């Protein structure tokens, strides 16, 4: 069997779709975190509908924001460890530039 790791890195780094999709080791954890954050956000919506105290709503919103930020950190670390490493190994600097742009948008 041939080693296609360089081919995978090249294809990934150049935005060419590959057959296995974009799955990483933390995908299940990210999906679980997103589901929890969505549940918390739904709770905030119900709190507003039910007329809960504004300070309680703000506390819950802070929890949602924190959950999303922490999910972003997991995705960022996974991206660095896999996507960016593969792209750099393939000599593709644009992956680093794309990551910098994404970090700028994420941290606004």
Automatic annotation (TrEMBL):
A Gene Ontology molecular-function term? DNA binding
Q: Provide one Gene Ontology biological process annotation.
A: negative regulation of DNA-templated transcription
The record ties this protein, via Pfam families, to: Trns_repr_metal
Q: Write down the superkingdom of origin.
A: Bacteria
User: Do you know which InterPro entries this protein is assigned to?
Assistant: Metal_Tscrpt_repr (IPR003735), Metal_Tscrpt_repr_sf (IPR038390)
Q: What is this protein called?
A: Metal-sensing transcriptional repressor
Taxonomic source organism: Candidatus Faecousia excrementigallinarum
């Amino acid at each position: 069997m041939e080693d296609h790791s360089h081919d995978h890195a090249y294809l990934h780094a150049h935005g060419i779709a590959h057959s296995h999709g974009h799955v990483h080791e933390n995908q299940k954890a990210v999906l679980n975190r997103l589901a929890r954050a969505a549940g918390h956000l739904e709770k905030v919506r119900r709190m507003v509908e039910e007329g809960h105290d504004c300070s309680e709503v703000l506390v819950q919103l802070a929890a949602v924001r924190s959950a999303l930020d922490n999910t972003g950190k997991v995705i960022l670390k996974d991206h660095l460890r896999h996507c960016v490493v593969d792209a750099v190994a393939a000599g593709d600097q644009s992956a680093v530039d794309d990551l910098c742009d994404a970090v700028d948008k994420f941290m606004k």
